[in-house]
Amino acid sequence: MQDKKVVTRFAPSPTGHFHLGGVRSALYNYLFAKQNKGAYILRSEDTDKERSKKEYEDGFLELFKWLELKPDQFFRQSERTEIYKKYLEKMIENDFAYISKEEVREEGQRSEVIRFKNPNKKITFNDIVLGDITFDTTDLKDFVIARSLTEPLYHLTVVVDDYEMKVTHVIRGQEHIANTPRQLLIQEAIGAERPLYAHMPLILGKDRAKLSKRDPEVIPALEYRDLGYLSEAIINFMALIGWNPGGEAEVFTLSELIEKFDLNKIQKSGGIFNSEKLDWLNKEHMKKLPAEEIKNKIFSFLPLEFQNDKLIPVIFERISKWSDVKIMLKAGELDCFSKFKQPEYDKAKLVYKNVTPDKISDNLKLAIKALEDVSEENFTTENVKISLMQIADSLQSRGELLHPVRYALSGKDKSPDPFIIAEILGKNETLSRLQKAL
Ligand code: GLU
């Protein structure tokens, strides 16, 4: 095996929306192939004509393009019927398989299937993740491998393809362990060399239960793109479910993962899907983007009146994916920055703790006076801060001044600090809101 070129494959069936679990399978195959200067094959296993749909295949092709997991070769099983047919004929000829006429129960009709002649023996394979696994194949009986010569089923097609495509490593989910003994038997029948197997651990929810399609966490993978996650973050996140390089670092690019990935260190037990961690990783990858790109992306969600460079850091600090900008906007979190929307509020809330309303008025007057002295061109966050802090520091507590100013400007219980709001609103609007509060 050692001297052979490494060939891996990811073989999804286009029978439903593609989920992130599949991204991990694709990724591990990709990483392992790339770090060994080998080839990574993507194979659409679309032999089930009833359940396979073009839109699902288009979906994962688009997804992998977005994730930049480019396969070296792409195959579609529905285009390979002739190849499978040859193997089926040969297997029948050599007595490894036979055509079986069976009663179709409901209709009392007879139909034919092709069954594999089970040698009924113990078979052992060494799994890179799980170690030696032994099955008694007797339990499997003479299993069906095709409905007819031109309608092969999964176990046959997968074995023929892995053989024809010279796949050296089958890296796939643990749900396929039970399929492996059938596939080993077919390999032996057609004289195929056995690839190495690595079955990856399950992906679990935060409660350590297996993630099911009904979980709110389980959304089609492409929706993560539409929610404004970065492809780098999705890759980084999925790579770490079931494997990690050890040490403290957790933020990796695809090329770092190619370098660090270790097939021999995949864990046996289930990996946790933690969406808070995904958001955190996404933010870490966002921070690495050029400032110009961050700005353009955020602006693309903002109405013109909020497209102000000063707002970028305010917004960026509060989001972990691009679509959060939309949420902030909808929740009115940016309203305090709008010159056109004077805040409506409960004036009692201008008062800070036990300070008397008269004292609050005095403080607001001091603030107005101080800000009147800052010229319009110098009305920056920094200068507003310096002039307000001078007053605030002379009071018993800073909040006596900073709270009513912030509340007068924003009209909200929670908002960014008053200095940045003042700069974005500009001198006139700031003074007018303070006057109104007075
Ligand atoms: N087509 C199979 C599936 O989608 C995967 C086959 C394999 O990886 O061996 O579950």
Automatic annotation (TrEMBL):
Q: Which residues bind ATP?
A: K213
Q: Which organism is it from?
A: Candidatus Nomurabacteria bacterium RIFCSPHIGHO2_01_FULL_39_10
Locate the motif 'KMSKS' region. 210-214
Q: Which family does it belong to?
A: Belongs to the class-I aminoacyl-tRNA synthetase family. Glutamate--tRNA ligase type 1 subfamily.
Give the top-rank taxon of the lineage listed in the UniProt record for this protein.
Answer: Bacteria
InterPro entries linked to this entry: aa-tRNA-synth_I_cd-bd (IPR045462), aa-tRNA-synth_I_codon-bd_sub2 (IPR020751), aa-tRNA-synth_I_CS (IPR001412), aa_tRNA-synth_I_cd-bd_sf (IPR008925), Glu-tRNA-ligase_bac/mito (IPR004527), Glu/Gln-tRNA-synth (IPR000924), Glu/Gln-tRNA-synth_Ib_cat-dom (IPR020058), GluQ/Sye (IPR049940)
Organism lineage reads as: Bacteria, Candidatus Nomuraibacteriota
The identity of this protein, by name, is Glutamate--tRNA ligase
Q: How does it assemble?
A: Monomer.
Q: State which Enzyme Commission number(s) the record gives.
A: 6.1.1.17
Q: Where is the Glutamyl/glutaminyl-tRNA synthetase class Ib catalytic domain?
A: 102-280
* Keyword presence, Lipoprotein: no
Q: Does the keyword ATP-binding apply?
A: yes
Q: Which reaction does it catalyse?
A: tRNA(Glu) + L-glutamate + ATP = L-glutamyl-tRNA(Glu) + AMP + diphosphate
Query: What are the BP-aspect GO terms?
Result: glutamyl-tRNA aminoacylation
Which part of the chain is the Aminoacyl-tRNA synthetase class I anticodon-binding domain? Answer: 310-438
